[in-house]
Specification:
Order of helices and strands of chain A: EEEHEEHEHHHEHEHEEHHHEHEEHE
Shape of chain A: elongated
Helix content of chain A: 25-40%
Number of domains of chain A: 2
CATH topology of chain B: MetI-like fold
CATH architecture of the largest domain in chain A: 3-Layer(aba) Sandwich
Number of strands of chain B: 0
Oligomer: heterodimer
Helix content of chain B: over 70%
Shape of chain B: elongated
CATH superfamily of chain B: MetI-like
Order of helices and strands of chain B: HHHHHHHHH
Largest sheet of chain B: none
Strand content of chain A: 25-35%
Bound molecules: adenosine-5'-diphosphate, magnesium ion
Distance between the termini of chain A: 38 Å
CATH architecture of chain B: Orthogonal Bundle
CATH class of chain B: Mainly Alpha
Number of helices of chain B: 9
Number of strands of chain A: 14
Largest sheet of chain A: 6 strands, mixed
CATH superfamily of the largest domain in chain A: P-loop containing nucleotide triphosphate hydrolases
Largest interface: A-B, 31 and 21 residues
Structural class of chain B: mainly alpha
Number of helices of chain A: 12
Number of domains of chain B: 1
Chain lengths: 339, 220
């Protein structure tokens, strides 16, 4: 569906900025794909290269099997109608009504008035703003503006929706409702979604697969479940930590003895439901102190993340690690606390 | 010698009409020339939808040249051209030519500024939906800048009212001409006061009208 091959982007200047370095991505039809990275990592440059708002310096962009750079400007305009996009700042026409904003893409292709009216009202109903058709963007909340943006992007029946930090200007509740709407766009219309964000929570709530970008390079990619349960790159680990393991409280930190061994245990799938810790305590007759833990859901699968300390013999700890691993639990010895 | 008001009043009416004609005709031409000039100045600049460095640089330079010449000098400098076009270098019709030379580049700049105020995100959204450059200008840039464009036209009109009064200096007719003939040449202070008051009222009227229309389109 979307295929990026060795995309590099250099913004000229002194010094020139290398925003993307040999980025390759393959996004399947019908999936929701997230790219996460800190500010300045190159996310916008990446997503803007998919519809050639930003021409890559080198590399190929294929959408629906078509090499975009080979198109004439007329063909590119046509192709863009099948690639919707929404923006962090919504980019609506402030001087036009909600209706007109959504109708614009249809006016551009010379659709008949009646057809436009029908389509726009159907889209506004879909995003839950049918009663706001005659309002102006200035009279809407941020979440409502983004809904208009989504309706507008859907007007030309795109196959793909690009979301450039679509929820970054919204508060948490509104973010959630916009993410729900995007999920509905994906489900009801079968539209492939590529989104970029600096919020790992957005990825967790919405995406099927995720790529982590750092300084213009993709440093990790996989299913959301894989990346959250077992992040390999340091950047990915840092992002996962923004959701799960926070720093230990100072008082807990100080109460730990030197010889305590700290383990991070990640339960996935069915294991998250088993009382494994209880089993370990019984079996090894040892004291286990749970320092921190959470059990949540990822892509509909349970997922637990525990930080425990074990007092006593190092040998016992090793046996425990082995036992847990035999039960398909991910165990990592944490060298220093505060990870 | 007592001032003959019976002669003056009809002249005041004529002068007001002459001012209206000068301002309106030169405004229409200034908009016809300045508006496309401003649009071209925006869309041909580096990084914009119809980037064309040569055209942009040339237009920019031309506008700067005209904008830097004081009106009174412009008035005199283009007399040969004025005579060529209107067959005369004096009178109301002849005054219109330099007024256009003065106001068209000015209005072009104002249009340029108005269009540059439009959020670049709007252009981005337009590109994303596959709009042609022509559609971007007409369906996105201009509607978004409309309120600001109305104010630009208001400023240009007021500039023209001022300049048209100055055109009186070279016998262009109008209120400025009256003020100079009677006030400066005959020391008739009351006439100066009356004409200046009329000019002030005119300017206020234009500004209020402009504000009103700008506000009406903005409120939506
Ligand atoms: N138009 C531009 N000109 C020059 N440098 C740019 C431009 N756009 C982005 N950059 C630079 O490229 C890098 C990546 O930017 P961007 O893709 O916007 O990252 P992100 O969206 O992840 O914050 C940054 O260092 C940024 O300053
Ligand atoms: Mg960005």
């Amino acid at each position: 569906m979307i295929e990026l091959k060795n995309i590099s982007k250099i913004y000229p200047g002194s010094p020139p900025v290398e925003a993307l370095k040999e980025v390759s991505l393959h996004i399947e039809k019908g999936e929701i794909y997230g790219v996460v990275g800190v500010s300045g990592a190159g996310k916008s440059s990446l997503i803007r290269s998919v519809n050639l708002l930003e021409e890559p310096t080198t590399g190929e962009v294929m959408v629906d099997g078509v090499l975009l750079s080979s198109l004439s400007s007329e063909e590119l305009r046509k192709a863009r109608r099948k690639i919707g996009m929404i923006f962090q700042q919504f980019n609506l026409l402030e001087s036009k009504t909600v209706f007109h904003n959504v109708a614009l893409p249809l006016y551009l292709v010379g659709k008949k008035r009646k057809e436009v009216e029908e389509k726009v009202m159907q889209l506004l109903t879909f995003v839950g703003l049918a009663d706001r058709a005659e309002h102006y963007p200035g009279q809407l909340s941020g979440g409502q503006k983004q809904r208009v943006g989504i309706a507008r992007a859907l007007a030309t029946d795109p196959h793909i929706l690009l979301c450039d930090e679509a929820t970054s200007a919204l508060d948490p509740d509104t973010t959630k409702s916009v993410l729900d709407l995007l999920r509905k766009v994906n489900k009801d219309y079968g539209i492939t979604i590529l989104l970029i964000t600096h919020e790992m929570d957005v990825v967790r709530n919405l995406c099927d697969r995720v790529a982590v970008i750092d300084q213009g390079r993709i440093v990790e990619q996989g299913t959301v479940y894989e990346v959250f349960t077992n992040p390999k790159s340091e950047t990915a680990q840092r992002f996962v930590r923004t959701i799960f393991g926070q720093e230990l409280p100072e008082s807990v930190h100080q109460s730990l003895e030197k010889q305590d061994q700290i383990l991070r245990i990640v339960f996935t799938g069915e294991n998250a439901k088993r009382p494994l810790i209880a089993e370990v305590i019984r079996k090894f007759q040892t004291d286990i102190n749970i320092l921190q833990g959470s059990i949540t859901e990822l892509q509909g699968k349970p997922f637990g993340d525990l930080l425990i300390s074990i007092q006593g013999d190092r040998k016992v700890t090793e046996n425990i690690i082995q036992y847990l691993q035999e039960h398909q639990v991910l165990v990592k010895e944490v060298a220093s606390i505060g990870v | 010698m007592a001032f003959d008001w019976t002669v003056f009043w009809p002249q005041l009416v004529d002068g007001t009409i002459a001012t209206f004609i000068m301002v309106l005709v030169s405004l229409v031409f200034s908009i016809l020339i300045g508006f496309p000039l401003g649009v071209v100045l925006v869309v041909t600049r580096p990084g914009h939808i119809l980037e064309n460095r040569t055209l942009f640089t040339i237009l920019n330079a031309i506008i700067n040249i005209f904008r830097s010449v004081p009106f009174i000098i412009l008035l005199v400098a283009i007399i040969p051209f004025t005579r060529l076009v209107t067959g005369s270098s004096i009178g109301t019709v002849a005054a219109i030519v330099p007024l256009i030379f003065y106001a068209a580049p000015y209005f072009g700049r104002l249009v340029e500024n108005s269009l540059l105020e439009v959020d670049s995100g709007v252009i981005e959204a337009a590109k994303v939906m596959g709009a042609t450059p022509w559609q971007i200008i007409w369906r996105f840039l201009l509607p978004e800048a409309l309120s600001s464009l109305i104010l630009a036209a208001t400023i240009a009109t007021i500039g023209l009212i001022g300049a048209s009064a100055m055109a009186g200096a070279v016998g262009g007719g109008g209120l400025g001409d009256l003020a100079i003939t009677y006030g400066y040449n005959q020391f008739e202070v009351r006439v100066v006061v009356i004409t200046v008051l009329l000019l002030i009222i005119l300017v206020q009227l234009v500004q209020s009208l402009g504000n009103y229309f700008a506000q009406t389109v903005r409120r939506k």
